[in-house]
Amino acid sequence: MHLLKWLYPGMKFKRWLLLFSLGTIVASVGIAIVFNYKYIGNLEEFIFRTVYMMTGTYYYTVTAIVGITVILFGLITMLFATRMIIRSVISVLIPESSDKLVDLIFEKRKLNRGPAVTVIGGGTGLSVLLRGIKGITNNITAVVTVADDGGSSGRLREDLGMIPPGDLRNCLVALADTEPLMEKLFQHRFGGHGDLKGHSFGNLFIAAMTEVLGDVEIALTEASKVLAVKGRVLPASTQRVRLVATMEDGSIVEGESKIPLAGKKIKRVHLYPPDVDPVQSSVDAILNADVIILGPGSLYTSIMPNLLVDGIADALRSSSAVKVYVCNVMTQPGETDGYTASMHAKAILDHVGMGVIDYIIVNSHELGNDVRQVYAREEAYPVRVDEEAIESLGIRTIKADIVSETNLVRHDPRKLSHIIMKMIYKLRTGTDKVGLFDYYFLKEQLKKENKEKVKKE
Questions:
Q1: Which InterPro entries match (predicted)?
Q2: How far does CA 262 lie from the centroid of its chain?
Q3: What are the residue ranges of helices labelled H in 312-366?
Q4: For the chain, how many structural domains are there in total?
Q5: pLDDT tens per residue, range 253-304
Q6: 14-34 helix and 61-93 helix, angle to the nearest 10 degrees
Q7: In 3D, which of 116, 115, 113, 175 has the Cα closest to residue 144?
């Protein structure tokens, strides 16, 4: 069965196997001519005589049956030999992956054909989504906020005068296709009592690469090679900015990490300085995308800072891509207290104008009482879906079970990516039925996830 995977649709292997077979047939005919083709006749006569001796009669279809059997045997032999030749080469180049060669080729072919997806946001929500999206396509670009000013990122920002690397690091790790040890290394935070305390290795690595190469975009590209990242991770801007919030009572709070702690209702947020140049690659990724996803993540402190960078919202409006906003499942204390789904979407439209959201994905799964009570202690509650108010904004609602519910409520990357994939198919083909090639791919992805889950357990 494993051998038959070479014949899966989209592998671009069958055409070369067929060409190899034709070449072998032509060579065989040439050999027969050189060595006198009468030997073929002798072989056919031998087959007839053998059948006659065994049955007492002639069966003229025997020749065809034997011929087909020989052809099939030859094809299987060529397929096996070709596979072993490729495997012998791969075992030298990437020995640790030689046993799953067909799976690697199958996955690579599928992912390279995937839609161009640009995801805009920051925080843990963005990295969760990216872990699911990388199972759909290699054509991913994460446009990441640079307004973070807390923790290790904030310290490096102040000490080195660079953009905060924390969200960039999380996205690199989320898109990485590398060993678990490397992921642990990048996420490792130093302990102790010195200056290194609290810093993550990944943040320091990005900071060092930026100083060595002199450009954060190049540094991220090189870091992506180390982690074997699927897709690209880009900052919305390379300029140092601060997020500033104007509250309903007229007070001003400066700093992304301080805004949720103010305990006041947010009226509007903006960047300082107000004129911030975007990274051109981020703009291009938005313009050339098939699908653009906003969120999930903190509305005012993770998603909004990207859209406030000059040119980002304009590119979003100009793009022919489908624009999807993934609404948070729970309200966020100090940021979206009491917000419904429509209020989340309206806040974005109020800041950057219409034309940046076509669809909103909201959770339809009923959360358990135990989980609700845990969040209620933090004054966080499920976001109510007010569908009519959403529709009045010119946005279509997609309800789905998109959460992974344990002791915390988080977006489930697999469920979310599956919903987005079905959306893409529906818009492209008019149906949400997945194609044959993608059926095989999803089947293999599910097997892979189950194996990884068992391994962790």
A1: CofD, CofD-like_dom_sf, Gluconeogen_factor
A2: 35
A3: 312-318, 341-352
A4: 2
A5: 999 989 999 989 999 999 999 899 999 999 999 999 989 999 898 999 999 9
A6: 120
A7: 175
Rounded Cα distance between 144 and 121, Å, is 5
CA dist 101 and 87 (Å) reads: 7
The 8-class DSSP code of residue 301 comes to I
38 C-beta neighbours (distance < 10 Å), count: 9
Alpha carbon 29 to chain centroid, angstroms: 50
**d(Cα 55, Cα 58) in Å, to the nearest integer?**
8
Question: In the beta sheet, which residues pair with residue 247?
Answer: 266
Q: What is the Cα–Cα distance from 374 to 372, expressed in whole angstroms?
A: 5
Residue in this structure with the two tokens 């008019």, named with its chain if needed? 430
Calpha distance 71→189 (Å, rounded):
61
- Identify whether residues 95 and 120 lie together within a single domain: no
Q: By residue range, what is the domain housing residue 59?
A: 3-99
Q: Establish if 105 belongs to a structural domain.
A: no
CA distance 27 to 309: 64
Q: Please report how the helices 201-213 and 166-175 are oriented relative to each other, as an axis angle in degrees rounded to 10.
A: 100
Which pLDDT tens digit goes with each residue over 215-265?
999 999 988 888 888 889 999 999 989 999 999 999 999 999 899 999 899
Q: Quote helix, strand, coil % in the chain, to nearest 5.
A: 55, 15, 30
pTM: 0.75
How far apart, in Å, do the first and last CA atoms of the chain sit? 27
Residues 339 and 397 in one domain: yes
